[in-house]
TrEMBL record:
<dbReference type="InterPro" id="IPR021109">
    <property type="entry name" value="Peptidase_aspartic_dom_sf"/>
</dbReference>
<dbReference type="Pfam" id="PF14541">
    <property type="entry name" value="TAXi_C"/>
</dbReference>
<dbReference type="InterPro" id="IPR001461">
    <property type="entry name" value="Aspartic_peptidase_A1"/>
</dbReference>
<dbReference type="InterPro" id="IPR032861">
    <property type="entry name" value="TAXi_N"/>
</dbReference>
<feature type="region of interest" description="Disordered">
    <location>
        <begin position="286"/>
        <end position="305"/>
    </location>
</feature>
<dbReference type="GO" id="GO:0004190">
    <property type="term" value="F:aspartic-type endopeptidase activity"/>
</dbReference>
<dbReference type="InterPro" id="IPR032799">
    <property type="entry name" value="TAXi_C"/>
</dbReference>
<comment type="similarity">
    <text>Belongs to the peptidase A1 family.</text>
</comment>
<feature type="domain" description="Peptidase A1">
    <location>
        <begin position="1"/>
        <end position="253"/>
    </location>
</feature>
<dbReference type="InterPro" id="IPR033121">
    <property type="entry name" value="PEPTIDASE_A1"/>
</dbReference>
<protein>
    <recommendedName>
        <fullName>Peptidase A1 domain-containing protein</fullName>
    </recommendedName>
</protein>
<dbReference type="Pfam" id="PF14543">
    <property type="entry name" value="TAXi_N"/>
</dbReference>
<dbReference type="GO" id="GO:0006508">
    <property type="term" value="P:proteolysis"/>
</dbReference>
<feature type="compositionally biased region" description="Polar residues">
    <location>
        <begin position="289"/>
        <end position="299"/>
    </location>
</feature>
Length: 305
């Protein structure tokens, strides 16, 4: 989600267009409650013909490729074109018949073990602060998370930030303090060459201003998304994610999102605030923000890992 556009850098070659943004959203998360998570944005960076990216491609200014890298410390960067795409990425085809970046079917594993959840299709949407699963998948994953916390020094607690939260013997300062109590959630995609997306605890937990750890995967059915499953910002931290609209695929790789790519000239690194990623507006389309909800937004701090 973009709040304010601070600076755009358009070096004049076909492949490199770098956008820098002032980050004021997912790592300073605001949410009025479990039923109305906001989505906001001002740029059209979807895969549609009217998007900025498609229009730039029509003028041969850049290839129809978008990438972003979200840092757990609150920064990151976004780029247009394929000049900064690294080698060794995991690539997965996306549906050509969907207006969203819809994945191949996936099987869900928790702590390395099959969960029985199969043929799960997810939409990658960095305009969503959190990740959302349809009711049945959400309940199944939450049950496994709770079972995994048996005999752990955590107690359930009510927190105004999110529906499911836990407290420890003392307030947590960051996700790093609590991540070892939780297990990794893995999506293994079919019809691919062993492509999988690992969601370590840092990719589905937040720490609130009260020092509680909360579950950053929400009930999408309850949020108005029906059975749509959405991989949001919280699950994309620490990864460079690339949306290749020319080859109808999406890719990701672990990356240090606190540093700008080495191939950017040093002149462009000066006076650049850490930027943020793209908003494709799935939540806004399906569950518009209600009037006055900004007054009840809850500030969540310490996404730093």
């Amino acid at each position: 989600m973009f709040k304010w556009l601070r600076k755009s850098i358009f070096p004049y070659n076909q492949y490199r267009i770098f956008l820098s943004f002032f980050n004021r959203c997912a790592y300073d998360l605001k949410n009025p409650g479990p039923y109305d998570p906001p989505a906001a944005g001002v740029l059209g960076l979807s895969n549609g013909k009217a998007s900025i990216l498609s229009q730039l491609r029509s003028f041969d200014l850049t290839r129809n490729v978008l990438g972003h890298c979200l840092s757990g410390k609150g920064g990151g960067f976004l780029f247009l074109g394929d000049d900064l795409v690294p080698s060794g990425m995991s690539w997965m085809p996306v549906s050509a018949n969907s207006k969203h970046y819809l994945s191949s079917p996936a099987e869900v594993f928790f702590d390395g073990k099959p969960t029985g959840i199969k043929d799960l299709k997810v939409v990658f949407d960095s305009g969503s602060s959190y990740t959302y699963f349809g009711f049945q998948v959400y309940e199944g994953v939450l049950t496994l998370v709770r079972k995994g916390l048996t005999k752990k020094p955590l107690d359930t607690v009510q927190d105004k930030a999110l529906p499911i939260c836990w407290k420890g013997t003392k307030p947590f300062k960051s996700v790093h303090d609590v991540k070892n109590y939780f297990s990794t959630l893995t999506l293994k995609f079919k019809d691919t060459q062993n492509i999988q997306l690992e969601l370590q605890p840092e990719a589905y937990l937040i720490v609130t201003e009260d020092g509680n750890a909360c579950f950053g995967i929400l009930n999408g059915t309850e949020a108005g998304l029906g059975d749509l499953n959405v991989i949001g910002d919280i699950s994309l931290i620490g990864k460079m994610v690339v949306y290749d609209n020319e080859k109808q695929r999406i890719g990701w790789i672990s990356a240090d999102c606190n540093r700008l790519p080495n191939s950017l000239d040093s002149n462009y690194k000066e006076d650049i605030q850490q930027p943020y990623a793209a908003n494709f507006g799935i939540l806004e389309e399906n569950h518009p923000k209600t009037q006055g909800s900004s007054e009840s937004n809850v500030r969540v701090r310490n996404r730093e890992l």
